[in-house]
């Protein structure tokens, strides 16, 4: 009995190991935007109709295919791998969805996984060619910072440049990543296209172009990071072959270059001598408080302008608010900015314009306003204080005492009763409804017996569904027919994309054969296909054309193919499939 139990356990374990597995294996789950990611989809049994995920956030190259089939001690080990190389197109966290494969009539799916793309990482952009020469030699992306030790809210500039030595050349370029300045107020500066300029890098003569210019105002003290800028570019690198004259043959290679991370140390503004009304202004400013007029008649209004002008962080602080007597009614201000933002820092003026309307005759003072800022040139705080402004209101009523106002406010006009506020009637009048009772009516008996009348229909439909479900061969044929139409439609969408077009067209042909001939992929040899199609009544020339299309799908992946050729192959496939549908 123990021997039988042991044998049963061994057979169960062997059955578990023999289960089909289909998994997705990424080379890494966190990478910089200047790195590459390899994703392998591995199956332990040969399958059909492989569908990769969408790869959102990446450019995918592939798939490359590898098959491993070995026998060890009489035990077969099989694996088939589809490999994709992914290039990030932007930063963020992306989900690589499920891939699907059909194995033995069953559909298997991989588990989705997340990939995080960060800013460029150091050392990942050095691409070497097979000749041993660096593909990016003599090419540098550099971030030049005007001041590495500023105060909070002191302007600094960051200029990203692409340096190219006189011995190197760069083709097309594309900016992969836009740096994010989380702890800064930032403004991109458009200084116009300056073209190629000459300069020096590490003491050597280089050509360079300006990629991006940014003005930054640090918003907190401490060690802050300036994020790198990444660029993808095409460069020419030598191969191991030479031409007739012995010169090395060149080929174009795509590489990624990044400026690298930079750090600045931001100093806090000094606490010693900081005024109580300091609101964060840093720079060199002037302060003005100007009324449109100081003498006015009752019913007229005046405008009070509070203005700061000069050079500094004009958009990053608030202006002081005037305090006026209760007899002057002051409205919310209209804020105006006349600020230019060059690479050296903001300059211009900001102002709040208040509208003030007097209520009574008399003279009313507007208290002095003060404005404080930190002067960068002298490294100390300065304060401006405006003069007191006296508003003379001529004409109109004279302000009365609070007691008089309260006495007048106590005299209220009585509200007269109108019809709309009359007492709500509480008595109701109910009237009988002349309608047939539902109980005992024709509708009552119809709804009562309708479920019993539907029972034979439900039984008939259930038997028909069971018969359809039990028809394994028929279901497989119908599924293959649907897949053939699906992949034929997919091939039409991929016209112009050689790799994906011929993969989809080949899948459409295979599923058409599975539907019409009731065969599996392992039986799809060309002699067998030809023999089966002819036995089903297909014409010889139609079968030959079908075999020719299959050959085109196999060879087109490894040979150059134009859009015209793909269109011809697609039209030819549609016409041949239509002809075979009629003939068999």
SSE diagram, text form:
Elements: H1 2-17, E1 22-26, E2 30-32, E3 37-43, E4 48-51, E5 58-72, E6 75-88, E7 92-96, E8 100-103, E9 106-109, E10 113-118, E11 139-145, E12 156-165, E13 170-175, E14 184-189, E15 197-201, E16 204-218, E17 222-226, E18 230-242, E19 248-258, E20 262-266, E21 282-291, E22 295-297, E23 302-312, E24 328-330, E25 334-340, E26 347-358, E27 362-366, E28 370-375, E29 380-385, E30 389-394, H2 402-410, H3 442-470, H4 472-493, H5 498-517, H6 526-535, H7 540-556, H8 563-583
Helix pairs in contact: 4-5, 5-7, 5-8, 6-7, 7-8
Keywords: Membrane, Signal, Transmembrane, Transmembrane helix
Transmembrane segments: 444-461
Pfam families: BatD
Largest sheet: 7 strands, mixed
Low-confidence stretches: 11-17, 126-133, 401-422
Helicity, as a percent range: 10-25%
Write down the domain tally: 4
Number of helices: 8
Strand content: 35-45%
* Outline type: flat
Radius of gyration: 41 Å
Distance between the termini: 58 Å
Mean pLDDT: 81
Number of strands: 30
Structural class category? alpha+beta
Protein name: Protein BatD
Signal peptide: 1-18
InterPro entries: BatD (IPR025738)
Organism: Flavobacterium suaedae
What does the model show?
The protein is an alpha+beta fold. The chain folds into four domains: 17-118, Immunoglobulins (Immunoglobulin-like, Sandwich); 139-266, no CATH class; 282-394, Sandwich (Immunoglobulin-like); 472-583, Four Helix Bundle (Hemerythrin (Met), subunit A). It has helices at residues 2-17, 402-410, 442-470, 472-493, 498-517, 526-535, 540-556, 563-583, and strands spanning 22-26, 30-32, 37-43, 48-51, 58-72, 75-88, 92-96, 100-103, 106-109, 113-118, 139-145, 156-165, 170-175, 184-189, 197-201, 204-218, 222-226, 230-242, 248-258, 262-266, 282-291, 295-297, 302-312, 328-330, 334-340, 347-358, 362-366, 370-375, 380-385, 389-394. Helix 4 packs antiparallel against helix 5 (498-517), helix 5 (498-517) packs antiparallel against helix 7 and helix 5 packs parallel to helix 8 (563-583). The radius of gyration is 41 Å and the shape is flat. Residues 11-17, 126-133 and 401-422 have low confidence and may be disordered. Residues 1-18 form the signal peptide. The chain crosses the membrane at residues 444-461. This is Protein BatD. InterPro entries: BatD (IPR025738).
